[in-house]
Amino acid sequence: MRSRRPDTTTGIVAVVCGSRPSSETPSRDDSTLRAFDRQTALLGLDYVDMYMIHWPTPFDWRAAETWRAFVRLRDEGRVRSLGVCNFLPEHLDRLRSETGEYPGVDQIECHPTWQQRDVASYCRSRGIAVEAYSPMARGADLDAGDGLIRAIAREHGVSCAQVILRWHIENGTIIIPKSVHAERQRENLDLFGFSLTPAEHAEIDALDGPTRAGHDPLTFSYA
Ligand SMILES: NC(=O)c1ccc[n+]([C@@H]2O[C@H](COP(=O)([O-])OP(=O)(O)OC[C@H]3O[C@@H](n4cnc5c(N)ncnc54)[C@H](OP(=O)(O)O)[C@@H]3O)[C@@H](O)[C@H]2O)c1
Description:
The chain is an alpha/beta fold. The protein contains eight helices and six strands, in the order βαβαβαβαβααβαα. Helix 1 (28-43) packs across helix 2 (63-75), helix 2 crosses helix 3 and helix 5 packs across helix 6 (160-170).
């Protein structure tokens, strides 16, 4: 299938919220497929590059049924890669045991003060790419470490945002920083003209702590 905008890379997150399957209600697969049709119609696209399950909701686990619908979309050429967000190792393993597959990507909250290294290394050891959402803790980490990020930025003549985003890149993490300002968007892409020294990189590593900016995947129910 051809996109009407073939030069556009589009990632969309699936928020799957249909009712439980029964003889009366449409199957889970059907509600996922209907959601996909609705979303791509709104986007004006025939296919998307990435489609993701947004939350694992382990207290109301539906990921395996949703994944089977995703596989159908992939087989039909309507999605190129399948991913998840906010999955912890136990959720990745459950998905694999029930569907035979790990996702291509796990998009998790990750920034200097909440690094989730255990989740990231679990993903990498199984060939799952790690994608950091809120890579700057929604802006809060720009001042992290009592001026440490600022000092490193000054040293390299770059911004605090560039220091943090460069640290992610050096960790092999995919990043999706958000800005509504064109100038900042350009800045957030300009990460390849400098590198952190090993000592600077280690200092940012050492900022890891218990400061989550978002929700806990074990309890959060988006739908
Ligand atoms: N999968 C999930 O469950 C999940 C959860 C949360 C977020 N996300 C996604 O993750 C992406 C980014 O996360 P996020 O928006 O939460 O946090 P973020 O990217 O860490 O931070 C965004 C904040 O940083 C500011 N900022 C961006 N670039 C800057 C720069 N160069 N200098 C100074 N400030 C800068 C932005 O302000 P301005 O906009 O004013 O520039 C905004 O306030 C979003 O696309 C979001 O949808 C996914």
